[in-house]
# Entry
Amino acid sequence: MPKKILIVEDDIHISKIIRMNLKLVNYETIEVYDGLAALEAIKREKFDLILLDVMIPKLDGFALMEKIQPHGIPVIFLTAKNSVYDKVNGLKLGADDYMVKPFEAIELLARIESVLRRYGKEEHMIQYQNLQVDLDKREATINGKSIELTPKEYDLLVMLLKNKNIALSREQFIDKVWGGDYYGETRTVDMHIKSLRKKLDMQEHIKTIYKIGYRLED
# Structure
């Protein structure tokens, strides 16, 4: 069952972009645009996580956080404010993370995944057509048959699966899979993707994005 996320953001354009990115990776979302509407939604439905803007009308994010704290729902604050006071205040109120706008979709998805993991809400299996990945065992199978992947190939595959339909740059792959202290060429990404495509027979699904990187498509 997909995780349900409440998006509380009064900028409709930003809210729609967030919803689109979450939908691409199979999260279920509800959008509201003020604090009171969020409060009603939380009373009415069960959510796995809340993305909460601070500067929202009727009831700001900090005030809303105080009211919903007893529900025990993980919260990530989203705000244009970048002061240390705002960050500390949000975390003191019980927020699990704090992101300053603007941010990249891949960063938001990684933060969501991290918070859900801490709460034991993360999925342990990822299914993509006839491919299944067991995140606990670090094992990939196709039609039940185990596929031998190197550690880097496995990490690349998981990154593609968790960001399905999102274009990822070679630099993003390097940062997440090889680490920020890697100083080799980005060509190594191409070599590993080539091997991954061959092993999984996914030449038509892992698309090359000209001058950028790669995208896994449905």
Remarks:
- The chain has two domains: 4-118, 125-216.
- The first helix runs from residue 12 to 24.
